[in-house]
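ok so I'm stuck.
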Amino acid sequence: MLALITGASSGMGRDMARVLAKRGYDLILVARRRERLLELKKEFDNKVTIIALDLSILDNCYKLYEKVKKEKIDILINNAGFGLFGEFYKTDLDTELKMIDLNVRAYHVLTKLFLQDFRRRDAGYILNVCSSAGFMAGPRLSTYYATKNYVTKLTMAINEELRREKSHVTICALCPGPVATEFNEVAHGSFAIKEASSYEVAEYAIDKLFKKKMIIVPTLLMKLTLFFNRLVPYRLSLYIAYQIQKRKTK
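replied:
not stuck anymore, here's the structure
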C-alpha cells in the first residue's frame, strides 16, 4: 500500500503521513523543504521516498507525476497550500498568484492525472485538503477563500461523476476550520477561535476517507458553522466573516 502526500513537511500533511505509516502504508512525501522531509523520514520504518519540489511551479506538477506514475499509488493527498491575510487592494499580487498556482492549479493537475490512472484501475483514493472556507466568501482572506471554493466544488463534482458511473475510485474534500499548523505564520495572521489539533484532524480525515465520505468536516463547531451559514443571508454571512478576519489580521 502506497500513499503520496504533498505539503508533507509540516502541519496536516506531516500528520497524515504519521497516521498512514501507522496503518502500514509506504509513503511518497513531497514538499519544498528537503531537510524537513529528511527529518520526518527518520520517524518511519516504512519505505519512504522524499521528493523536494515547489508545486506552485506548474512544470513541477508534471515532473512529480512523471517521477511516480509507474508506482502503484493507492492514495493521493493534495495538501500543499497557503493563505494571505489582508484587504484585497493591499495584498501582494505576486504572492496571490503563487497562491492560486499552488492552491488551485497544482490540485487540478494532480487530481486529473492521478484520477485518470485510478479510473483505469478502478481503485484508489484522492483526498483534497480544502477548508470550511470552501463554502464561504472571506473578506480580508479573499483569495484564499476563493481558491478553497474552487477545489471544494471541483472535488464534489468529480465525486458525483464517479458515483454515477459506479466507480470504485473515491475522492473526498477535507474541510476543517482553524487547525494548529504553520498557516498563521505564512499568512501573517492569527485565528480568533481555538485551533484543532493537526494530528486529530489528520486521523479523522483518514478515517472518513476510507468510509468514502464526500465532505469531511472535523469538529462539531465547524459542522454547526457550515450548517447555519446555509441559512443566513449572504450579506450577514459576509459581515460575520469580515469581523472574524478583522480580529485575527495582524
